[in-house]
Amino acid sequence: MLNSENALTNHEVTVCLAGGAVLGPFNATWTKDQGGDVRELVKEYDSFLQGEKQRRFKFYLHDSYTNTVHTLIINFEQVTGVCDHVRLKHS
């Protein structure tokens, strides 16, 4: 797990697909210095829902708990929802 002061949040991302299939949940972390694809996935999908054309299809979700990377290649036309569960740090 990231122990630096720059570690902001730990996300648990689940992608729901047309037909009822579910991808995830995937753990992912982003920092102040590097927003990471976990944030970009949610922003891109939100833009797509607002009528913009999908620009990216590949997203890398860095899991700091297991020191792995999940690569998602997604066509938003087949996605019915993205759930981004965020664990906030206590102050």
Tell me briefly what this model is:
This protein has 91 residues and is an alpha+beta fold.
Helix content: 10-25%
Cα gyration radius (Å): 13 Å
Which word captures the global form? globular
User: How many distinct beta strands?
Assistant: 5
Uncertain runs are 1-5
Largest sheet: 3 strands, antiparallel
SS strand fraction: over 45%
- End-to-end separation: 18 Å
Strand order of the largest sheet: 2-1-5
Q: Give me the number of helical elements.
A: 1
Order of SSEs: EEHEEE
Mean pLDDT: 85
What class do helices, strands and sheet pairing give? alpha+beta
Tell me what you see in this structure:
This protein is 15% helix and 46% strand. The chain has 91 residues and is α+β, with helices and mostly antiparallel strands. The strands form 2 sheets. The chain has a 3-stranded antiparallel sheet with strand order 2-1-5, covered by helices on one side. It has a two-stranded antiparallel ribbon with strand order 3-4. Strand 3 (58-63) and strand 4 (68-73) form a beta hairpin. The radius of gyration is 13 Å and the shape is globular.
